[in-house]
TrEMBL record:
Name of this protein: Cobalt-precorrin-5B C(1)-methyltransferase
Catalytic activity: Co-precorrin-5B + S-adenosyl-L-methionine = Co-precorrin-6A + S-adenosyl-L-homocysteine
Enzyme Commission number: 2.1.1.195
Recorded metabolic or biological pathway in which this protein acts: Cofactor biosynthesis; adenosylcobalamin biosynthesis; cob(II)yrinate a,c-diamide from sirohydrochlorin (anaerobic route): step 6/10
Encoding gene, per UniProt annotation: cbiD
GO MF annotation, one: cobalt-precorrin-5B C1-methyltransferase activity
């Protein structure tokens, strides 16, 4: 791998070893697209390209497999996940670009980039599995070059990863309804190698910092979906918000130990349906049972057997919700799910911590809340002028 890629000074220490940072498939795609447009508009080869990542780290990435054809340019960047175990490390991520009459940047996936076949994922059904932040990175990188070169027209970008279909067999993509390849991912553009213990320690460190700054109540989301939902749909102060990733149980344990008074969880149903089954580490390698837990609660809500059978064949919780809605029992099922979530969260904290959950879906919005939510919301009221 390139030793001068801009990440030489970025690492973490684990077991007295330096673990190097890497960069995401999204960064590879954006860098390749940027370089290809440079070559298309400037009509000369480019050996290396700079890319500023959302994390604020400037990458210097080497181009491979350059092909300047008639009206189009293709080039690739080789993925380097650093010292993080990553199935995509070493794969070439290609971008092919060409001019279009329609203004703007259009982005699609080619060979080895998966297609979304099920509802509930970040991109709509039928779209290339290129997530929102990589799309934004590609669009901004291409637009930057177009403006520099005073090119007023449009650019089409096709991202391909020839090894993607084979790599996808080592991932959960097929189970998530992404077919034909891998996803182009990344929210920061950078891969930070972290063990589970290190990640839990980082959550604890952030919680200790919040407490030290006077926080007694926390808003906690498992990840980016919850954070985005909080900002877009809830009028609350997120100063004391943080992410717990998959570590719901560990987060509660730490909050109890540190003497916090309450946690308001804002969670996508895809994660917290597992909590309704008492699963406190929601990573798919630890446990899944999403369809089974949803089906069990649908039975409690009086759903007909044919609906339950359909739910058990689903891949995503959003798909299962659609079935419940069709059979008129989504609201009742979610009521039972939230009752079980509430029970298991209180059980984990031994009642020494007030917990509440706002459960939501990307497609159906707020699905319901537990009983303590109104009280907890009062601790996060927006201040005037906020």
């Amino acid at each position: 791998m390139d030793q001068d890629n801009g990440l030489q000074d970025y690492y973490i220490i684990k077991n007295n070893k330096k673990l190097k940072y890497g960069y995401t498939t999204g960064s590879c795609a954006a860098a390749a697209a940027k370089a290809a447009v440079m070559m298309l508009l400037m009509k000369k080869d480019v050996a290396k390209v700079d890319l500023m990542t959302p994390k604020g780290i400037l990458l210097h990435l080497t181009l491979e497999e350059i092909n300047r054809g008639d009206g189009e340019v293709t080039c690739a960047v080789r993925k380097d996940g650093g010292d993080d175990p990553d199935a995509t490390t070493g794969a070439l991520v290609y971008a092919k670009v060409w001019k279009t009459a329609e203004k703007g940047v259009t982005i699609d996936g080619g060979k080895g980039v998966g297609r979304v076949t099920k509802k509930g994922l970040e991109q709509p059904v039928g779209a290339a599995a290129i997530n929102r932040v990589p799309r934004q990175m590609i669009r901004e990188a291409v637009t930057e070059i177009c403006e520099e070169q005073d090119y007023p027209g449009g650019i089409a970008v096709e991202i391909s990863i020839p090894e993607g279909e084979e790599i996808a067999k080592k991932t959960f993509n097929p189970r998530l309804g992404i077919e034909g390849g891998i996803s182009v991912l990344g929210t920061s553009g950078i891969v930070v190698p972290m063990s589970e213990a290190a990640l839990i320690a980082s959550i604890r460190l952030e919680m200790e910092m919040k407490k030290a700054n006077g926080a007694k109540y926390l808003v906690i989301t498992p990840g980016n979906y919850g954070e985005a939902f909080s900002k877009d749909h809830l009028n609350i102060d997120l100063t004391n918000s943080m992410k717990c990733s998959n570590y719901v149980g560990d987060t509660i344990d730490m909050a109890v130990e540190l003497g916090m008074k309450g946690i308001l969880f804002i969670a996508h149903v895809g994660k917290f349906i597992k909590v309704a089954g008492g699963i406190m580490n929601t990573h798919s390698r630890c446990a899944d049972s999403r369809a089974e837990i949803m089906a069990a609660n649908a039975v409690r809500a009086g759903a007909p057997i044919e609906a339950v059978q359909k739910i058990l064949r689903t891949i995503t919780t959003e798909e299962a919700l659609g079935i419940l809605k069709d059979y008129g029992c989504m609201e009742e099922t979610m009521s039972h799910v939230l009752e079980k979530i509430d029970f298991y969260l209180n059980n984990r904290s031994y009642g020494s911590l007030k917990t509440g959950v706002i459960l939501f879906s990307n497609e159906y919005g707020t699905l319901g809340i537990t009983g303590s939510v109104p009280e907890l919301m009062g601790h996060f009221e927006m201040k005037e002028g906020s």
